[in-house]
Structure to design on (229 residues):
């Protein structure tokens, strides 16, 4: 079983705060790291896919970095808004494998 | 359709009854996956389809669980003689190619929340 760990489990911040979460994964046989945002009663929505060590991706106020050698990825949200409230999932894939290994997610609550 | 569609969105069933969950993937997506999330747990892989065949069923928790896919499109996950521990959100996803090949992105449905009482 491949362990993907996310921290913290939950986070409560005020509107305007910047925040970040961590995803840790096995560094051997790494192929790709995915971040998803899952809002209540909606489908998980893909945010980023990263494959290369040192990759940085950005989408609006959200960005992510990847360190494949040490096995971690950070997701940053700048100036959190209430609409950012969701569970953020990371998922790791092995080369030529056909499944994601998901972490249990970080639940973010942004208070107005 | 535009996205992955699952039905029903909610299902409450009595222990011991059979249930069928349906997934309609994005047109043209050859790969289809079922995952589930039990309370307090992460998303757990159940089964992967490539076309109509299922080369990886390793995540099905018991022989009460089965799935099929027809016409390279719609998939049905069947749970026989449901137990309370089957209560979970069942998510379906589809992708153009299998994950683990290129930057393949998987698109998820909204899930079916199954409650076994």
């Amino acid at each position: 079983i491949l362990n993907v760990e996310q921290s913290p489990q939950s986070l409560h911040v005020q509107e305007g705060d910047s925040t970040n979460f961590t995803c840790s994964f096995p560094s051997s046989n790494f192929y790709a790291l995915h971040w998803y945002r899952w809002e209540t009663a909606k489908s998980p929505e893909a945010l980023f896919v990263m494959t290369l060590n040192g990759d940085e991706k950005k989408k609006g106020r959200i960005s992510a970095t990847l360190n494949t050698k040490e096995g971690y990825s950070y997701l940053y949200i700048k100036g959190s808004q209430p609409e950012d409230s969701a569970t953020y999932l990371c998922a790791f894939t092995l080369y030529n494998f056909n499944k994601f290994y998901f972490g249990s997610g970080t639940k973010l609550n942004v208070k107005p | 359709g535009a996205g992955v569609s699952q039905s029903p969105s909610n299902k409450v069933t009595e222990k011991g009854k059979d249930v069928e969950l349906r997934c309609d993937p994005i047109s043209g997506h050859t790969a289809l996956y079922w995952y589930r999330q039990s309370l307090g747990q992460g998303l757990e892989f159940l089964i992967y389809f490539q076309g109509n065949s299922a080369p990886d069923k390793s995540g099905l928790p018991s022989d009460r669980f089965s799935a099929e896919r027809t016409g390279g499109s719609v998939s049905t996950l069947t749970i026989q003689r449901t137990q309370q521990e089957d209560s979970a959100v069942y998510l379906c996803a589809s992708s153009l190619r299998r994950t683990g090949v290129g930057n393949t992105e998987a698109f998820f449905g909204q899930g079916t929340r199954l409650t076994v009482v």
Observations:
- Residues 34 and 49 of chain A are 4 Å apart (CA to CA).
- The mean pLDDT of chain A is 92.
- Chain A touches chain B at residues 4, 31-32, 34, 36, 41-46, 49, 51, 89, 91, 93-105 (CB under 8 Å).
